[in-house]
Amino acid sequence: MLFDPINIEGLSIPNRFVRSATHEWLAEEDGTPTAAIGDIYEELAKNEVGLIVTGYSYVNPAGKSDGLQQGIYDDRFIGPYRKIVERVHSYESKIVLQIVHGGRQSMAQHGYPLLAPSAVEDSSTGKLPRAMTEDEILETIDDFVNATRRAMEAGFDGVQLHCAHGFLLSSFISPYTNRREDKWGGSVENRTRIITEIVRRIREDVSSDFPVMAKLNATDGFDIYSGHISLDAPECVEIAAHLEKAGVCAIEVSGGIVEAGSVMSQPGVDTEEKEAYFRRYAKMIKDTVSIPIILVGGIRTRAIMDEVLRVYADMVSMSRPFISEPDIVKKLEQGAEGARCVSCNRCFDKSGIRCNYDFAL
């Protein structure tokens, strides 16, 4: 199944491999995507990665969360992105733009306020965000809709809403970070409302059939003994059902926020038992919705990839292995047993992503 095609809302993808969104630290300071980013995506396409998800691209300058991060908050980015998309489309791969607002994990630079659904201090930084007004929520919905229009005009095959890892949309769906008592908080339906409104507006104002995917936090990642009331099962399953009903065409299942530790990119994935660490969430969601499920998180060996497609998900998503081996899809097709990535996390390099592990040791 790994090398079988799959169709997602009319988008034909040549195999089941997904390059999960990865921040490259290679954009210009204002968010303009560079040829160096295009080099990475073209190399992946040349090596037969079925679906490439870009590094996260912020929809408003207030939502920038890291240095040299890509932006999509202005029409001037359409041209540079179009050049990158054309390079990828020289091959069979498809490419979608991941769009995000950093929320309480934004850099809060240049006088922009640190915004969140509720004023809950970030215990990892000590920063206290300000609860968003209703007008600010509606303006943010507009920002995501306009970002999607720009992505479509640039030639992308779709967008992926970043609803994971503690960024703004993720912090709305979590009861840990969303303590509102209005229509944007409280019940699962209300906490998901900002996302479903974004999708509804995209369908009405941009395109009725442009693929809109979501990267979904299935858990905040806190230890069960932490005492935090946070996102986990079964609420994540109910959220996924709301997203499907709204028109999301595929869900990538992930988890973790910064405050919960290294849940997102767990180090030392050196046995099959440690791989695919969000698989049980993917299975619960897959059993509930009918849209394709993409699983990310420590997937390394061919045996686990095959098991994922048999039981847990419809596509296999990886980040760090593609940094180490952009040609891993071809290697697997030729009989390799898995990726060489040792999950050391040294590839997350602020001078530009690269594998910094010395395999000669």
TrEMBL record:
The lineage of its organism: Archaea, Methanobacteriati, Methanobacteriota, Stenosarchaea group, Methanomicrobia. InterPro entries: Aldolase_TIM, NADH_flavin_oxidoreductase, OxRdtase_FMN_N. The keyword Flavoprotein applies. It holds the Pfam family Oxidored_FMN. Residues 2-336 form the NADH:flavin oxidoreductase/NADH oxidase N-terminal domain. One of its GO terms (molecular function) is FMN binding. It comes from the Archaea. Keywords: Flavoprotein, Oxidoreductase. This is 2,4-dienoyl-CoA reductase.
